[in-house]
## 1
Amino acid sequence: MKKKKFRFQLGAFLMFLAFGGLFLLLFGRIVYIQITGEAEGKVMSSLAEAKYARESLLQADRGTIVDRNGELIASDTLSYRLVAILSEDATPKGSKRDRHVVDYEKTAEILAEYIPLEKSFILDHMLEYSESGKYQVEFGKAGRDLSHETVAALKKLELPGLEFVEDKKRFYPNGVFASYLVGFTLREEDEDKNVHTVGKMGLEATYNKELSGTDGKVEFDSDHWGFVLPKSEKLIQPAQDGFEIQLTLDKTIQNFVEDAMKRVDDEYSPDKMLAVVVNPKTGEILAMSQRPAFNPSNREGLTANWLNDAIENTVEPGSTMKMFTIAAAIEEKKWDPMAYFKSGQYTIYDKTIRDVNRTGWGTITFLEGFQRSSNVSMAYLLERIGDQKFLEYIKGFGFGQKTGISLPKEVPGIILDKNPSERLTTTYGQGSTVTPLQMLQAATAIANDGIMMQPYVIDKITNPNTDEIVQDEKPIEKGSPISAETAKEVREILASTVTSDHGTGRRFAIDGYTVAGKTGTAEIPGASGGYLAGGSNYLYSFLGMVPAEDPELLSYIIVQHPKLKAGQAGSEPVSKLFNSIMENSLKYMNIVPEGIETKETVHLGDFTGKSSEEAISLLAKDGFTPVVIGDGEVINSQYPKEGVRLAEGTVVILKSEGPISLPDFTGWSKKMVLSYKMLSGLDIRINGNGYVTSQGLSAGSVIGPEDPVVINLQEPSEIYKEVEIDEEEESIVGG
């Protein structure tokens, strides 16, 4: 048999070398990676982690804004953001359920029924993003802040590719409510495309940093589709919620203001209105509102004016300024109410000023001149005081200076004092400008026995993550421009403008309460110089306090250019505001009208630190009705505080430790229930306003913070109406 001769195959050999070399190179590469754990200078474990590690944002809740009793004014609430997934890669191969939009036409048609966009826009928007290779698309403002009801309805339709991302929405439960003070927020994207709530106006903007908080995050491992891998560790960095801002506002009094302003606005359609209510003993602002106003939830009603008129705008106050002129005269012992002067007109150098009726009322007393709001009487008073001394008092009352309230953009106003005529017109509030808040601050000196209090609206700011109080504002005295005796005499004179037959404040009388105050009718500067004239082209106002003997409430009301009917006076819309707000607020505060309650009042003592038994005994001895929270042996706190004057039978709440037994709330005012809720920490849910008519759990029930208690209240008018109906039914049945 013939042997086969070996033939060297060069081509095969070269192929062997090539493939063998590649194999050795690949094998060496694998061995190198396994030994070093690196490829191309990068750690493979880090690359894998970057590919499969995921990070989820934990959004911080924006801080809440609440009133003095903890009632909600603004908070974050849950909403949803609509996302349409366009990429087919979102649906895993073999999946029975599509995770991307399949039918663009149908999806656009249905979405147009639920979000404020046209079908054609939605369709074009999705097609544009799809054709450019985008993975998903959103729909701007129209696709944000979706309610739970909208999302639930869309989910029922099971449209492929629609995702609903949980989001935050700012919630303002009270609608038009102190809107220029509270402000509003908008949702804005940052550089990293994260959407945040940003304050754009009012407290929301001023305290945006404190309210915003800090977002947290969750880090976890996931598969290719983004699902969390089993047994993967989660690293959680908790979100830090924004601070809570508690205001001095009282939600109930603020609602009285808003309701009254709506009624007057509907009836008189003024260009502007302003109402501020203050506690003159502390300077706490209990209510603040203006018109035009807006709903912060949707900005409906917001105009080009973004200014808080109480502090960022000035006015010529008109005759309300006269109360400070007369205060200066009394303090300087230049006031003689029974002295006479010739009313009508007064000339100083080349300037003549006139009374409102131009011819005056003949020769009258200074007291009558003040009651009739005579400008000329102020001129003669200025002669007695001296214009430089008068300016010292004006500055002493805080005019021409900022009050120092914790709100931005406060303006100081301008006191004209360059020549004698300017100093003269300032005595009756013309020419010089002030802010409404300055007027209120100055008036606290008259209401508070000579001690002037700085107005403030922030009660405290609390970090909810640690319960630390980061800002705690207290009453601040701003000096004593007049004595207590002068303040008392000024209040008596101011009260006479309401009670006198020729007083300009007769419309401001409130049944059962003595009102002290001063009306104002100021000219309005025109856009092209000079003043507007004729008709109701005036700024009508009233600066008043109640009760006159010891004021608990102080209010400044402004109505500019109301649409008056023939025969109507400018003080009519102002009095409708003032009277409604003050009467409702006084009754809400349990300040009893004269003639209704004749019981003597007693100063409440301090019972904190005393034993429960001793405190109850002492209160009963003084004629009070003690209600104890808890069954502890020692009293930790009380409401009302020490020093308040209370009538016999008034409920006094004492707080101790231990289990809580519910009292009988029947007949309690809303304020008392809120105080009990605050001291007890119980979950008390209040329905209605006025006084308690029923409660969900009976008196004596032992409960804890986790047990909700529903308390029903009714206005006195409604309770009385029901009693009348019951009596009528009885008579019909018995008849």
## 2
Amino acid sequence: MMMAKKWVKFLRDFENFKAACVPWENKIKAIESQFGSSVASYFLFLRWMYGVNMVLFILTFSLVMLPEYLWGLPYGTIPRKTVPRAEEDSAANFGVLYDFNGLAQYSVLFYGYYNNQRTIGVLNFRLPLSYFLVGLACIGYSFLVVLKAMTQNIGDDGGDDNTFNFSWKVFTSWDFLIGNPETADNKFNSITMNFKEAILEERAGEIEENVHLIRFLRFLANFFVFLTLAASGYLIFWAVKRSQEFAQQDPDTLGWWEKNEMNMVMSLLGMFCPTLFDLFAELEDYHPLIALKWLLGRIFALLLGNLYVFILALMDEIYNKIEEEKLVKANITLWEANMIKAYNSSVTGNGTAAPFFVHPADVPRGPCWETMVGQEFVRLTVSDVLTTYVTILVGDFLRACFVRFCNYCWCWDLEYGYPSYTEFDISGNVLALIFNQGMIWMGSFFAPSLPGINILRLYVSMYFQGWAVMCCNVPEARVFKSSKGNTFYLGMLLLILFLSTMPVLYMIVCLPPSFDCGPFSGKNRMFEVIGETLEHDFPSWMAMVLRQLSNPALMLAVALVMVLTIYYLNATAKGQKAANLDLKKKMKQLQLLVASNFHGCAGASEVLLALLFKNNDLCEGPENKHFAIPLSP
């Protein structure tokens, strides 16, 4: 008896230890017990994204930022690592640093600070090669981890057997290892919420609908959604044109709004348009899970359109910078010729000259479009985070305070009437997380600090949004059970990953790097660092083999084989799924046949024994004495 108690105590302590090792596990369970699995799935998704970004940050910090900081040339030694003389007075001001200019721009946070030395430090660390390979490794790892997560969760979405659903919930939901009263209350609330989800799912399939009215309302809702998307696209286009006009003006004459108008317009559209889409979804009367997927798809289209308009604006600015580089390069060549001429004129008759030194801050330099791209994505990320937090404070916290303290002296019930407490916006929060991650993937090649900024944002969001949802929000009126695998979220994340990496790969392959900033300066294309490494660091025979392996014809053949393999595996999976569904149907038919003839059996085990041993006497009841099920030999 004592051994059994010790064993139970050991199991309880071990479960508590495992829960303590998983980040934010208790917080997420508390949220799930109050708001259901749909809200908890967002925080599980956020925690998973935190782990992905942690790996990206470790790669960029350990293989790019830290080597440059330890072994690279220090600040002030060369022009690309020095603030220009005209900007020195304001380089450390808060407003300049908040805009990621000044000292922040000329640091390891951005692409332009890194030198193009082939090797640095006593270890001869190849920084340009490492920078290029880490950028590709981050993209490859992201694809791998998203596809792996989707593969693991395929079986969680369509393979659930809902037979005796409520019976299983009644008899198997309680955890008998719980010894904490607060944990027991949370578990009780969680079981209650699961029953609400299951009951609403059952009722949703029994409602009779007016087909023609539903079709008309859904057409009307989609028409309103199309008008909203068109208006949003026009507003983004208008903001881009204005930002290009502001870029040609003196920055000192512009106010805060003019400098941040593009970022603020995108953030405000991402904040208010999901609310409109949610109102339009009320007309469609879909099942809550289907309505959420439609809402996510519409918000995804909105954010993706905004992002690509933003990218097109950046591409126009990049082309302008590349054209400007040609003029600046000619001016720098003329300046160098004048410096040489002045130096030669200072040579005395005996061949000696006065000391001649030009400070790096005084050397003219060309535009660095890579740093400009990184700055834009960092600014957009920071402004979006601030907008989200201010929205939570104003729209959730202050609204909840008003409802809570003014309800006693108001004309109507504020808690159950207008304005009431806010519901947790699952669709808006999930899409904001996916959209922000797409910006991280797109901008991290030009701003290695972006994964670290995103880790800080996700860490703060877990606590801040967890506090907000527990203190300021109420459970949704439309409760449903969300899939544990979140395959739908992962599918959208995979799509945004693909669409985010395409512009980056285009910039790497097709655009020439800036001539006086970044680790690839002096090359025609960034990927030439691979050929340089093959030429200097590998034997000639190995370099020839690697070049043959990178032949476009061979790569095309490999891609074709991969596509055919994926098609074969997909077809095999569909066949196995169809076979499983057919087997389930046959088992249910057999179950009904057994239930209609073995009325005297007390349980499924006795029916199974009767079938195996072909002995109907195992079951009680005279109706079973003369019945036999033919079994295969």
## 3
Amino acid sequence: MLRRSLLGAPTLAWTLPRVSRAGTPDSLVFSWPSNAGPLDPHGYGPNQMYAQAMLYEPLVRYGAGGAIEPCLATRWAPDEDGRAWTFTLRSGVRFSDGTGFDAAAAKANIDALLRHRERHGWLELMSRIEAAEAPDPATLRLRLDQPYDPTLFDLSLVRPLRFASPAVLRPEGGVSAPVGTGPWRLAESRRGERDVFLRREDYWGEKPPLRQVVVKVVSDANTRALALEAGEIDLTYGADQLDADTFRRFAGDARFTTAISPPMATRMLAINSGRAPTDDPAVRRAIQQGIDRDALVRHVLQGTEPVATSLFAPSTPQVAHGLTALPFDRAAAATALEQAGWRLPPGGKVRQKQGVALALDLCFAGGDALQKALAEAILSDLGRIGIAARLLGTDAATLQASQRSGEFGLAFTETWGPPYDPHAFLGAMRAPSHADWQAQRGLPMKAEIDRRITALLAATDAAAREADQQWVLATLHEQAVYFPISFLTNKLVHRKGLGEVPFGGTFDEIPFHRIRRG
């Protein structure tokens, strides 16, 4: 699942509102590389997650410090055997089309998801739900086929367990229009130009201070920086919206405010164990020792992200850390390749084994300036130990397709941050549509990895869950199928007059509803 799909979206037909310019008191002008998409709460790309979170709300919300907080449900409790959950729903909530939110509406959404359960196989809760029941308008009951400890965390995610008006649910799946219970409604979408979100005056909760958020489509990071400099946009927010050099330049400009969030997720390379030459464990381990991650963070990322040496950030709950990454050692990497039979021919720069060159593809998002810079530095490092890397910068659709099919040697990927990490991210490793499954498919113990993940997700005993999880993490570490680079942070830049802009509690939710100008 790519967090930031760069695909376009169809133009939506609404009455066009008056669009304010950057700097006006009741409006915020933001930028994003693509349109928001059709904004189907039960769908994936090209829906953009920040926008889905603006329109659609969950039963429970992931709050500060990892606490589960009320949202559309005010109270909840599991049955004694853990095989059902009962939710008391908030009263007085309406969708943006005026339809009331109640247990029947919630059940209609969950039934729609269950009719197409196969689309959501990456999320364990979608495999566990047997049925949704609505015993009365204020009560929703979820029956599970077995106890599932992370139920509330899965319910808090941006997708797919959020709710659209029953009036727009289509029998074949998806929605006919983006209609949610959230504080915003989509008022305009022009392909390749902008999306406009207006504040809902009838929102059940505290209304946003801003009247509207205008999201300009700006695909290029340099163009985005120029627009910020010229006052055409008010704010940039995200992991890779600006390259590190540009972010540091804005940090030194007194006209702007910059901030960096705490570590949220892990930026890394997936190393394909199912495709030559990275099916050779010696090659994977040489890659681990041949890339200088400290230099990547220092020179390419300009210190805006901490160095990562583990699959999950140290702050990730329920993860026992302590695994030690192989140190950067170019000589040791070269020696290991020699011992594995990958030798440099006389006068050559690329190692060979039995006449086959040690060459691989490094796939990245072509429109992402930061990934491109990292890829170029990694190419240089690998070349110094005799590995030839071909850089393949593609659009998001092509990149997703190559990850689904396993047609990559190295590919940039990320963990998903809270509340997905670790359980949902590990669960998705069992889905062949994910780069993680493809990267692991050549491992002789892949079936055991998947079995252990299934067991830990179903475990009710904390010690058993921890033992299986530690075995999985230790095995992936030993098999060298991931090269962690840095712990991802969200970065924001805005003009001084905008006021305070907080960070969201998750990687993909931007708290527009808490931004106040001045």
